[in-house]
Design brief:
By secondary structure, this protein is low in regular secondary structure. The chain contains 2 helices and 2 strands.
Length: 67
C-alpha cells in the first residue's frame, strides 16, 4: 500500500513469531538485509538430500556438540 519494497526483518510469519526457541526464521535468503541470510551462510547450515542434487528452501543447522 505504501508503494515500496519490504525491508529486511520488517515482518515474520505467525509460526516464527510464536516459536519461543527461535527455531523458525523467516525471510529472503537472497537478500543480505534479512537475518535468515546469516543462518543460510552459517558453516553449520545444510539442506536435506543435498547430495542428491535437490534443493529446498528449508535450511537446517547442525547440532552444536561440545566434546
Amino acid at each position: 500500500m505504501e508503494g515500496r519494497g519490504v525491508a529486511g526483518d520488517e515482518f515474520t510469519t505467525a509460526c516464527a513469531q510464536g516459536c519461543p526457541s527461535r527455531a523458525i526464521t523467516f525471510g529472503d535468503a537472497a537478500d543480505p538485509s534479512w537475518t535468515v541470510t546469516k543462518h543460510v551462510n552459517n558453516e553449520r547450515a545444510y539442506h536435506v538430500f543435498e547430495e542428491l542434487n535437490t534443493y529446498t528452501a528449508i535450511v537446517y543447522l547442525k547440532k552444536v556438540t561440545h566434546t
